[in-house]
Target: Bax inhibitor-1/YccA family protein
Amino acid sequence: MRSSSNPAFRNLPRGGTQTYGQYGPPVGFDQTQGGAPGYGPGQVTSGEGDRPMTVDDVVIKTGMSLGVALVVGIITGIWAQTSIAETGRLPGALIGAMIGGLVVGLVISLVIIFKQKPSGPLTLAYSAAEGLFLGALSGVFEAVYHGIALQAIIGTAGVFIGMLVVYKTGAVKVTPKLTKWIVGAVVGVAVLMLFNLIASLAFDFNPLRGGGPLAIVFSIVCIGIAAFSFLLDFDQADRMIRAGMPSKWAWYTAFGLMTTLVWLYLEILRLLSYLRE
Model:
């Protein structure tokens, strides 16, 4: 499989032991073929006791993960806004929820990535943890900038749908060259974020996240890279489908898409806050 900027999709297995009838493997949602996803009329069997994954599997599992994150996020966000409105300050419990969600989400993501095994419970737990973190954070932003959370959600959904259309129509082809460019860009941004974090902690110097012109440009660049990362995510999901990997791997695909969605939402939320100042 082609490499991806998303660590969740690195070093994946090459597929199961599925065999197909004379009409071949299930149809994916790649850039070269039209038509609805699904199976050909041939018989499908699985050496692993599980049918091959389809686009429907990916959509359902991703929708479930996103739904959990949204529900937890909305509840947490309402709690955060109410607490701040009543006390006029940031409650310790809210800070704990924010940090707890961040840490738990990070730990679960590392477990999923390094185990390289699909898990519905872990993926949903990751989604819940990220919903807790993002909900608390969004509640804090919402208390300062009314309506910013909804704008960030709409923006994230718009970018996701837009990149799916771009991928489906083949307007931008996922080539090895583009893949290397996106992976390099993600690594470069990660390095810059690390140096900026060290500088902010050690020297109180925060140029990339301080809200100035450079911070705005950096957030726009991050949003662009996150958006293009979706193309690689879609391509990896499509390759997994065409490799005939068991349907349970749709959970792994959903996890990978969720990590990109979380990053994109954070960057859009951050950019909107800069523009409100």
Q: What stands out?
A: Residues 27-33+50-276 form one domain. The chain has one domain: 27-33+50-276. The beta strands are 19-20, 44-45. The two ends are 44 Å apart (CA to CA).
